Automatic annotation (TrEMBL):
Protein name: Homer protein homolog 3b isoform X1
Alphabetized InterPro entries for the sequence: Homer (IPR045027), Homer_EVH1 (IPR044100), PH-like_dom_sf (IPR011993), WH1/EVH1_dom (IPR000697)
GO terms classed as biological process: G protein-coupled glutamate receptor signaling pathway
Source organism superkingdom: Eukaryota
Alphabetized SMART domains for the sequence: WH1
CC per GO annotation: cytoplasm; postsynaptic density
Coiled-coil regions listed in the entry: 207-338
Length: 366
């Protein structure tokens, strides 16, 4: 449906401008229809020979104006112009960044307006020639109607057999009324088709944005999965280091080196977690209202929380190991002090024993 729509209606001119609409309450103040400058384009529908001005802001069409021969684009300042759309029952205003852009848009409006006038005249001619209810095909009857326009309201013509024929302008009046009814029906049908095409144009734009958002969300999910794999690898490495540290409790020097290395690894991991957390917050700011993406995001956050808890447990184990190492060192120092004290006591005892030996030797000599 969308490709056929694009093939049928082609853009012929585009410009960027701030879009405004007249306040329906006051009919004086301008109300902004777009927060920033948007693209305003002229489109030509070859199948219906219709020219339109269309502008889309976000997910809705803020301008959908069919150009008619009686429309006029008026420059109200050096960078601002406006035109009235009786079908939409509003007045559109465009604010351009330069005077040249306003001039180009005004010239394009004039060209499209003239083309719309020529297209309408050709369309009416084809319609009158092809519809028997609105046009008398026989040349004699056409000539007769032409004569009636210049003849009195009532004319008597004598023909063979003394028959009288009466002609009046009532047939022409009825024909005009019938034409107006058919034109009104065609105008109403055209408005319905314009509204449907505007909805199709809006849906097409929304679909493109949704596809882009889904692609961006899929890329974000892949990044989250990759980050989780990196966190798991880092956690496994830390677990191995903790096991190695626990096995080295009896070797203070080796334990000190492993502890420093583990502390450095923990600092690097904390820095990595902080950076990834900022990336996750940045990705979360770009999330869309897609159910599956929200579910995967929640699962990812849950896995991240589990990893953070696991890392916290590992840090607790590292702290416990450091305390054990400190306690072992303190006990070793106390043991060394006790051994030194015993040695000193033994030295004193040995000195006393030597003195006693000397005293016994003196007594034996006497």
């Amino acid at each position: 449906m969308f490709p056929l729509h694009r093939d049928r209606e082609q853009p012929i001119f585009s410009a960027r401008a701030h879009v405004f609409q007249i306040d329906p309450a006051t009919k004086r103040n301008w109300l902004p229809a777009s927060k920033h400058a948007v693209s305003v384009s002229f489109f030509y529908d070859a199948s219906r020979t219709v020219y339109r001005i269309i502008s889309v802001g976000g997910t809705k069409a803020i301008i959908n104006s069919t150009i008619t021969p009686n429309m006029t684009f008026t420059k109200t300042s050096q960078k601002f112009g406006q035109w009235a759309d009786s079908r939409a029952n509003t007045v559109y205003g465009l604010g351009f960044s330069t005077e040249q852009q306003l001039h180009q848009f005004a010239e394009q409006f004039k060209e499209v307006k003239e083309a719309a006038r020529l297209a309408r005249e050709k369309s009416q001619e084809r319609f009158e020639l092809s519809n028997p209810a609105l046009n008398i095909a026989a040349p004699e009857l056409s000539q007769e109607l032409s004569e009636e326009r210049h003849s009195p309201p009532l004319l008597t013509v004598n023909g063979p057999g003394e028959e009288k024929l009466f002609r009046s302008k009532s047939a022409e009046v009825e024909l005009t009324v019938e034409k107006e009814k058919v034109k009104k029906m065609l105008s109403e049908g055209s408005m319905c088709e314009i509204n449907l095409e505007a909805e199709l144009f809006t849906l097409q734009d929304s679909n493109a944005k949704l596809v882009a958002a889904l692609q961006e969300a899929s890329s974000s999910v892949e990044q989250w999965k990759q980050q989780l794999d990196e966190y798991q690898e880092e956690t496994d490495r830390l677990r191995d280091q903790v096991a190695e540290l626990e096995g080295q409790l009896g070797h203070p020097a080796a334990g000190q080196s492993a502890r420093e290395e583990l502390s450095q690894s923990l600092e690097e991991l904390e820095a990595l977690l902080s950076a990834k957390d900022q990336e996750i917050h940045s990705l979360q700011s770009k999330k869309t209202d897609v159910g599956e993406l929200e579910k995967e995001r929640e699962e990812t956050i849950q896995r991240l929380e589990d990893l953070e808890r696991l890392n916290s447990d590992l840090e607790d184990r590292v702290q416990s190991t450091e305390k054990t190492l400190a306690s072992s060192r303190e006990e070793q120092n106390q043991a060394e002090v006790e051994v030194q004290r015993i040695i000193e006591v033994l030295d004193v005892k040995i000195c006393d024993l030597n003195d006693l030996r000397q005293s016994l030797a003196k007594l034996i000599d006497k």
